[in-house]
Amino acid sequence: MKNNNEVLLRVESLSQHFGRLKAVDKVSFDIHKGEVFGLVGESGCGKTTIGRTVIKLYDATGGNVYFKGKRIVAGTLEYKQNIENCKKELKKKLNELKEQGASAEEISAEKAKAAEYIAQQKKEIKLAKFDQKNCDKQYSLERQQQVHEQYKQLLSEETDPERKAELQKQYKKDLHEAKHRRLVTGIQMIFQDSIASLNPRMTVREIISEGLIINGVKDKKYIDEQVYAVLERVGLVREHAGRYPHEFSGGQRQRIGISRSIIMNPDLIIADEPISALDVSIQAQVINLMNELCKEMGLTILFIAHDLSVVKYFSDRIGVMYFGQMVELADSEELFAHPLHPYTKSLLSDIPRPDPISEKTRVRLSYNKLRDHDYNEEGPTFREVLPGHFVLCNTEEMKRYQAEAAAIDTAKAGEANEG
């Protein structure tokens, strides 16, 4: 990862519910510019749902997502819960005041205080809905204003009539593209199922160029040049542009999916298990390709997977998901050196080893939430147990995890001194 503290994507208390099912429950994390952030967990833990909510394929139930400092996803769950809690607290408080024989002025003051708080929460709900709906429109208006200011100065300084005509033509072109540009276009997604994600009735050229056309690009020659360039960049050839998806292997189709995402020059790519449906040898090729693209284009990637060994190789930081919640988050090396949450330990214990002797003695750990935690007195919160290492735990567990990490470091230091 580049030494960059700039936060490109910020997810705050994100929740995504489908009826009573809490697919994602108050998940928070940041992704820095130039970073590969791995999101791991077993099937059904909410990894893909987070990716789809971030890119606005789903409307979030609660929480916020900020991209380039602007809110692109806004849920209203917390504000609605705050209103319900306020009403319950008001009812309880009024009953207490009546029992104490409080004056009418005191009761009115309590009601006014609650009404003010509820009005503020309703205002937040309206603002969230507005941002969710209009963030792309606002971004487009800002881009148009930037184009206006840029060319206003250039045109005023240009004296050559021919050059000024060229600038005027380019100005109209850039303004047209700015009108169609959306903030969320800066986020592109590579889907897990390369077959289902590609339209079988469209040629590769049409599939890859669709984003450019939607964003207002009309120059067919320019579109073809861009399509050929990205095809060659991912290891395909320009002759493939006229073919249909069914004419390619699984690995080639996934390369087409990658081409479709990078042609838009995105700031962030959400890679939703892009290698899980591929052969092992092809998996390595695709991972190496994505590594090269990261370096060449300075991409930031949210890498969703369930194979921890691949995530360790490819990611700078890793977040571990369990049943809709993030239970642990740390740097890749730190997570493997000091796995603290019992579920993370269980996942790591399932990674097979290439040594048949050590494989025979490998102990596989099971995780049982009711058995491994006691939250009767204090529930868990997401805490920084070690510098940059966050775990979902309560106070007692936090102290135990810190002592456990210190013991591991002491043991490793002893082994190093003996060596």
Short summary:
By secondary structure, the chain is of the alpha/beta class. The protein has helices spanning 47-54, 77-99, 104-157, 161-180, 204-214, 220-233, 250-262, 280-297, 308-314, 332-337, 342-349, 356-361, 369-372, 395-418, and strands at residues 7-18, 21-32, 36-40, 62-67, 70-74, 187-190, 268-272, 300-305, 317-322, 325-331, 381-386, 389-393. Helices cover 52% and strands 19% of the residues.
H/E series, N to C? EEEHEEHHHEHHHEHEHEEHHHHEEH
The end-to-end span amounts to: 32 Å
If helices are DSSP runs of H or I spanning 4 or more residues, what is the number of helices?
14
Low-confidence stretches: none
What is the β-strand count? 12
Q: Name the helicity range.
A: 40-55%
* Beta content: 15-25%
Report Rg: 26 Å
**Sheet bearing the most strands, described?**
8 strands, mixed
Pairing-aware structural class of the strands and helices? alpha/beta
Average of per-residue pLDDT values: 90
Instruction: Please list the strands of the largest sheet in the order they lie side by side.
Output: 6-7-8-3-9-10-12-11
Broad shape: globular
